[in-house]
Amino acid sequence: MLFRSKTFTGQESIYVSKKFPNKLTVSTDEQKPALLWKTGSHSYILSTNGRAITEQTSQGSAQQLTVVNDNTNLPVDIGSRVAGRDFVDFTTKVADFLKSNKIEYDKIYITDTTSELNVQTKQGYLIRFSTLNNPDNQTRSLKATLDSLAQQNKKATNYIDLRVQGRAFYK
Asked: For a designed S-S bond to 135, which of 24, 71, 88, 93 qualifies (C-beta 3.0 to 4.6 A apart)?
């Protein structure tokens, strides 16, 4: 029997099992779109596990996805892992928090590494997150900082930095 291996970039996972006496069962889980990754002049749809599913050439189906701008402009190969599952989960939670708290932003981006996530708000200040720490703790700190500033009739003008666990710094 001849067996050829094939790469399936559209699948999250592929399971093959042998059934006695001479039957193979193949089942797959299709990759689910999670983020739109922009690098250079290209945009890619990333799956929940951080793999590039396809290059996005039109705005159509990707309008509902959170956009992450990669300022390193590294090339991306379809099927390759662009970011870890933890980064995708983190970014999705932060984007959901921003939307539910009506914090408008111009862009979400990374600079050198996926261990930090930056959000440039429409209000003119930058929010800096560490993707190595818990997103729920950081978004709670962000909410508490914004509420505290509002009570004092102040606004962040430059940044809110949440990268130190349990702390929030602002200017």
From this structure: 93
- Angle of CA points 49, 51, 56, to nearest 5°: 125
Helices (H), 13-169: 85-100, 135-151
Structure tokens at 121: 């708000």
Type of residue at 22: N
Which residues touch 162 (CB under 8 Å, ≥6 apart)? 127, 128, 129, 130, 138, 141, 142, 168
Rounded to whole angstroms, how far apart are CA atoms 66 and 54?
Answer: 16
Are 162 and 146 spatial neighbours (Cβ–Cβ below 8 Å)? Answer: no
- Under DSSP, the state recorded for 103 is -
Kindly report, residue by residue over 94-114, the tens digit of the pLDDT. Answer: 999 999 999 999 999 999 999
Q: Which two tokens stand for residue 46?
A: 């990333």
Whole-prediction pTM: 0.83
Residue where the block lists tokens 């914004």: 146
